[in-house]
Amino acid sequence: MVKKTRAPAMLFMAAMITGQIYTWSKADDIPVESLPAAVKEVVESYARILKESKSVDEAAAAFAAIAGGSLVNENGTVSNNTKQFGLKKDFNNFKHYAYPIKITRVNKTVSNGDGYGAAKIAGDRYTVWIAKNDPAKGMPAPVTIIAPASGAPKVVNVGSY
After folding, report:
1. How far is it, in rounded angstroms, from Cα 58 to Cα 81?
2. What is the pTM of this model?
3. What is the tally of structural domains in the chain?
4. By CB distance 3.0 to 4.6 Å, which of 3, 19, 84, 141 could disulfide with 160?
């Protein structure tokens, strides 16, 4: 007697679910060329800070000008958690990314707010993926920027590089 398994049906269902999640994740993508110039400049500034800074402390000091939301304290300085974890990770790993940057994908949504108090920022949320310097090293990774209705765009999520 041959015992039947549910493996083929389970594999089919897993493939269907994965495909649906992938489609949903790209639902808010916009053409790379549609990325606003001010947002692109912030992404380029972040890459320049990571590439040219001699230390994480130096990077944090420069990063404060373009950081917002939960990455900064209410006085505008980079939070210790941001510096010790996300920024440090990006600083150490940016050597694996193309410089000058190559943007591969942009996702645009709307944020009701990131951060709290004076550091809170809300507006159009752009998640921008940057290519590695060698595709064999892995997939592009994102940095997230919020562009408020008034004021300069700010980086609100780091630590993916």
Report:
1. 16
2. 0.83
3. 1
4. 141
